[in-house]
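Ticket #4471: structure export looks truncated?
Reporter: QA, pipeline team
Priority: medium

Steps to reproduce: submit the single chain below to the structure queue and open the exported record.
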Amino acid sequence: MSTRARPAALSTAAIVEAATRITEAEGFEAVSMRRLADEFGVTAMALYGYVETKHRLLELIADQYLTELDLAPRVRRWDRRLQRIFTSFHELLVARPILAHVLVEQTVDAPATHRMAEVVLGILREHGFKDREAVEIFSVLASYTIGFTLSQRAREPSESEARGRLDRLRGQASDYPNLSAVAEHYLNWPRSHAFEHGLEHLIRAYGPRA
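Actual output as written to the record:
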């Protein structure tokens, strides 16, 4: 009995490319195996020979985005190189919202993710950090970057909403005297500079332990 040949256009790379295109146009919620099957003119079952689950598909999309990460190979100072790598990571998470979503929701066990960890851990170990400390620092910096980025996205009110919040906080001086006094700064703090400032302090705090 002959078996039906797979369509020539169907491959793991082609499926990931199509899913990425849909994600960028409509959001990751629009991606489904049925939607992708329609893109290729096949049944959903035909996709599972290339991508086992949607979990795996999202992992491959995230990994593809992580290939854009700047690993700063020409930066010699260990702290400045880490600063550049995680700033690039932050910029990538802002540009590719699905990446932050996937990294929060599931493990990404794929080549580009491994390359990032390999480089960062190598920088730390070469600088004198013990293995456990190197893993701790990598985890802390990655968690800070992802958490800050998600917080930044959640804290973007419209102009009218921001004005309303400012007026309300200023009007509650008797209940919240400190918050009311710094209300304008509290609501309009320079997020782009704040990320790099916080990252720099984190890296510097670990430096003396090397």
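Status: closed, not a bug. The export was complete when the record was re-opened. Leaving a note from the reviewer for reference: Residues 1-52 form a domain with the Arc Repressor Mutant, subunit A fold (CATH 1.10.10.60).
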